[in-house]
């Protein structure tokens, strides 16, 4: 068993850690009214927050709820800025420790990973197996309503195995078991229907700690598949998993074993997107369709790129984000598209992408 996290709570509560967390939490948002007010008296607010954490009087603030529609309708829950500072104070201290225990081929919400690295890894494997004489198949696993279905008891039990610091566990459990709103959802539930919401399950989409917990939770599946089942071609991006094999019967066996494992250990279910098909038909993964010979960008992905570029262009022109952040988005998309042989698509996406500040427009 990996070494447990011990005696980190004093460092978590330190002014230095909280100040760094404040800097991280305000990135790209520093001119919002709530953050400007916090920043005006930052030392006072951070010292007050430090005392609340040390004295165990800290409680999670109320969530603001709204929907986004990319790539599908999702309920987002946003915390007050003070609570986002706490999330960063936790995340920057313990997520690097958790990350060291993850497998190489886990790509979601990790430094130097991401969708491009995930799809490149799968493309490399498909090219490799495409040259072999035997016909290869893929098993695509998709967790049903993953963020809404994470079991609080199972998550806390997992955290207690990883962490021996009682004060840190107190804080994490306070975040997980927040009673002000139901994070979970019935298996066939609708986020629009309050009657379908559940307590004791789910993580708020929008929380930094939810990203951390999501990876930690499914790392159990990664370890099971790699260490116990001995699967060679296995890649995961959050709750999307692809497994390759030349043995179709074995893939069916893997599916049965995995379904039993996530049901008993993690209290999760597979949804109807789970499938076994020949790799020659192409594998839909993280917004792309991957073939042994080439990559294609899904139409929904190209539309998402266009919307995102329009958004960052507008934010830059209003002085809400710096040029380097815009450039990072552009370079990321260019890096993705250059692997897909989509010259005409690149032109369509970037043809009207000209940056101009608001005051330049008025000259």
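^ structure tokens above, recovered residues below v
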């Amino acid at each position: 068993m990996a070494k447990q996290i011990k005696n980190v709570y004093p460092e978590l509560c330190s002014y230095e850690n909280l100040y760094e967390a404040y800097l991280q939490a305000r990135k790209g948002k520093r001119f919002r009214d709530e953050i400007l007010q916090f920043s005006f008296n930052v030392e006072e607010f951070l010292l007050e927050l430090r005392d609340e954490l040390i004295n165990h009087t800290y409680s999670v603030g109320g969530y603001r709820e709204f929907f986004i529609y990319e790539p599908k309708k999702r309920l987002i829950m946003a915390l007050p800025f003070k609570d986002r500072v706490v999330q960063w104070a936790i995340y920057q201290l313990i997520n690097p420790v958790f990350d060291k225990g993850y497998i190489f081929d886990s790509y979601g919400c990790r430094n130097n990973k991401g969708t491009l690295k995930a799809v490149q890894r799968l493309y490399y494997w498909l090219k490799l197996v495409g040259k072999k004489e035997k016909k290869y198949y893929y098993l695509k696993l998709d967790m049903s309503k993953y963020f809404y279905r994470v079991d609080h008891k199972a998550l806390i039990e997992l955290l207690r195995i990883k962490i021996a610091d009682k004060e840190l566990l107190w804080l994490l459990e306070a975040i997980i078991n927040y009673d002000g709103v139901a994070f979970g959802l019935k298996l066939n539930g609708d986020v629009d229907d309050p009657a379908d919401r559940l307590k004791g399950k789910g993580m708020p989409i929008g929380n930094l700690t939810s990203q951390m917990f999501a990876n930690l939770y499914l790392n159990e599946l990664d370890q099971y598949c790699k260490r116990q089942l001995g699967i060679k071609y296995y890649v995961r991006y959050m709750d999307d998993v692809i497994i390759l094999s030349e043995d179709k019967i074995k893939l069916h066996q893997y599916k049965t074993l995995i379904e039993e494992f996530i049901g008993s250990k993690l209290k999760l279910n597979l949804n109807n997107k789970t499938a076994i098909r020949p790799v020659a038909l192409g594998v839909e993964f993280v917004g792309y369709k991957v073939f042994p010979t080439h990559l294609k960008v899904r139409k929904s992905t190209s539309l998402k790129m266009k919307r995102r570029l329009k958004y960052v262009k507008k934010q830059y022109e209003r002085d809400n984000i710096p040029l380097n952040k815009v450039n990072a988005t552009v370079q990321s998309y260019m890096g993705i598209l250059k692997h897909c042989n989509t010259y005409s698509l690149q032109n369509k996406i970037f043809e009207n992408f000209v940056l101009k500040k608001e005051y330049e427009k008025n000259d």
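The longest helix spans residues 208-228.
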